[in-house]
Amino acid sequence: MSEKYARIIIDISHEKVDRPFTYRIPESLENKVIMGSCVSIPFGNGNTVRKGYVIEITKEPGFDTSKIKDIISIDEGNEAATERSIKLAAWMKKTYGSTMITALKTVLPASKKQKMLEHKYVLPRLELRELTELYYECKNKKQYARERILKELLDNYGNRIPYELITKKLAVSSATIKSMADKGIIKVESDNYYRNPVSIKDAGSDDLELSPDQKNIIDTVTTDFDNGDKKTYLIHGITGSGKTFVYIKLIEQIVKRGYQAIVLIPEISLTYQTLMRFYRHFGDRVSVMNSTLSPGEKYDQMQRARKGEIDIIIGPRSALFTPFERPGIIIIDEEHETAYKSESMPKYHAREVAEQIAKLLPDGASVVLGSATPSLNSYYKAVNGEYKLFELNSRLSGGELPEVEIADLRLELRSGNRSIFSRTLQEKIEDRLNRHEQMMLFINRRGLAGFISCRSCGHVFKCPHCDVSLSEHRGGKLVCHYCGYEEKISHICPKCGSKYVSAFRAGTQQIEKEVHKLYPQARVLRMDADTTKSKDSYEKILSAFANREADILVGTQMIVKGHDFPGVTLVGILAADMSLNAGDYRAPERTFQLLTQAAGRAGRGTAPGNVVIQTYQPEHYSIQTALRQDYKAFYEEEISYRNIMGYPPVAHMMAVQIWAKDEQDGVRQANRLRAVMEQRKGNSTVIIGPASAAISRIKDIYRMVIYVKDKDYDVLIDIKDILEEYLAQMAKTEDVSGLQVQFDFDPVNGF
Ligand code: ADP
Ligand code: ZN
Ligand code: ZN
Question: Which of 139, 327, 355, 714 lies 20 to 30 Å from 539 when distance is taken between CA atoms?
Answer without folding.
Answer: 139
